[in-house]
Structures are given as C-alpha cells and as structure tokens.
Amino acid sequence: MPHRPKVIIGNWKMNKTIAETKSFVAGLALAAKESAFQIGLAVPFTMIDTAAKTAEGTVIRIGAQNVADRDEGPYTGEVSPKMIQDAGASFALIGHSERRRYFREDDAIVNRKIKGVLKIGVQPVCCIGETQEERQSGQAYSILKRQLLHGLDGLEKEDVASLIIAYEPVWAIGSHQVATPEIAQETHAFCRSVIKEKWGQQVADRLVIQYGGSVNPMNAAALLAEPDIDGLLIGNASLSLEAFTNIVLLHV
Ligand code: PEP
Asked: Is 168 a catalytic site residue?
C-alpha cells in the first residue's frame, strides 16, 4: 500500500482582514503542533505576507488562491508566480471552480498557471470537479479526465507526482451537500487511474488527491478514512478557528 501524506488546506476565499489573519494563524499554530496532517492555508494575496510571517517556525504552509498565467509585464491587476513566492506562498490553488465559473478560466489557462508555478518551485493545487448536471447525465468521469489530461498536459512525471489534485465536485462546494465517502473514494480512484494510464503507476501512487466540498468537523473523519482520499480542501469551515482546529486534530 503506497504511503502518502494526508494534507489539509483551508481556502479562505475573499474573507478576513490582516488582524484576523494574525490571530487565526497564531491560534492554528498551537493546534498544528499536535496534528497528524500537513496543514496549509490558501489566503487572499494581501494576506500572504502577514500569514507567512505569523506562520514562521511552524509547520503551517501558506499559499495563494490564484496566480497569473504570465511571468511579468503589462497585465494590470495580475499577480505573478514570483510575486506570490516572494510574499511567502509555497503553493497556489489553480483552477478552483469559482475561478472557472466567474472568471472563465479554462483548461488551457489552468495548464499555463501550473507550468508557471512549477518552474519556480511553487506547488500547484490543481482543482477539478464536475457540475450537478454533468454528474446526473453520466458525464462526470469524462469531464474529470479532460480536466486532468488538459490541465496537466506536457508535464513530466516528477512534476505530476509533486503536485496536489483537489477533487471538488461543483455541486458540493458551499452547498452543505458533501459527497458521500463512497462517491468521493470511487471518484478519487478514477482520477488516480487516469494519472496511472498517462504517467505510470509510481506517479499515481505518489500523487496526493484531496477532496473538497462542504467538509466540516462532523464529516471529515469518514472522508479521510478512505484509501484514495489523501486530504481535504476546506472552504467555509476553514474560516472558523474552532472548526478548522477540530479537523486538523482528528485522529484517522
Ligand atoms: C472550496 O471552495 O474549496 C470549498 C471546498 O468550499 P466549502 O468547503 O465551503 O464547500
């Protein structure tokens, strides 16, 4: 049985001030000492520096929620891979369903962003997921396969093994409609099989695949107990220090 770390990442989305960031990260640092998981927080761009400085000397990693698909230049309002790294981010969420939906990010953009961060040693967390209609019409697996093969197109084996995939069914995000552990496990196993077919068994065995979508302290343990669920990406429940701490302190 391949041994993979379990990774828990909070995604704050467009929430929290600098003062709130400082006190949250300081509080989480206490729990992180007792946690069996790798822990990350994906914070707004303006909070990366504060969060990273507050997390210094702890095991908490700070990441961005997005990044530009260009290295530098006249792209007003964009923030480059080097800039997020310079501010203290060691990973970046890429292709979150809210970015795909509201900002029209497609697989080609996701692919450019993944290559851009990998080039400088920032870890991509590539988010994929099907909509309710796609699942109901039996297209979930073909959508996920397309997102994986196009999003990771052109990557070497070592790069694929080093990144994180976050399977986040769109119907489960912010909906209180968490996927059952059985559905999540089956879908993760499918995603791993797609990776195996294209990049080989060793890469598939090493790849961390997280689940995301309405995770809370009550349902997290059952998801984490599944063999192909290597961690969780958590939105709403990561805004509460108490809820997030309860999840990172679970024993699975
Ligand atoms: C997310 O947006 O990545 C997410 C998983 O959100 P929530 O936990 O609120 O469903």
From this structure: yes
The per-residue pLDDT for range 113-134, each reduced to its tens digit, is 999 999 999 999 999 999 999 9
Q: Looking at the predicted structure, is the pLDDT value of residue 1 above 80?
A: no
Residue 84 in domain: yes
Q: For ligand 1, atom 4, name the residue with the nearest CA.
A: 235
Task: Ligand 1, residue 11: give the atom nearest the CA.
Answer: 3
Quick check: CB of 212 below 6 Å from ligand 1? Answer: yes
The residue whose CA is least distant from atom 7 of ligand 1 is 235
CB of 147 sitting under 6 A from ligand 1: no
Q: How many domains does the chain have?
A: 1
Residues of the domain holding 194: 7-248
Does residue 20 belong to any structural domain of this protein? yes
Cβ of residue 35 lying under 6 Å from some atom of ligand 1? no
Contact 81, 119 (CB under 8 A): yes
User: Quick one: average pLDDT of 234-239?
Assistant: 98
Residue 2 counted as domain residue = no
Atom of ligand 1 nearest to the CA of 166: 3
Which CATH number does the domain housing residue 46 bear? 3.20.20.70
Whether the CB-CB separation of 135 and 154 falls below 8 Å is answered with no
Could you confirm whether 96 is annotated as catalytic? yes
Residue 68 maps to a domain: yes
Per-residue pLDDT tens over the stretch 7-30 = 999 999 999 999 999 999 999 999
Q: Is-contact 116 69, C-beta < 8 A? A: yes
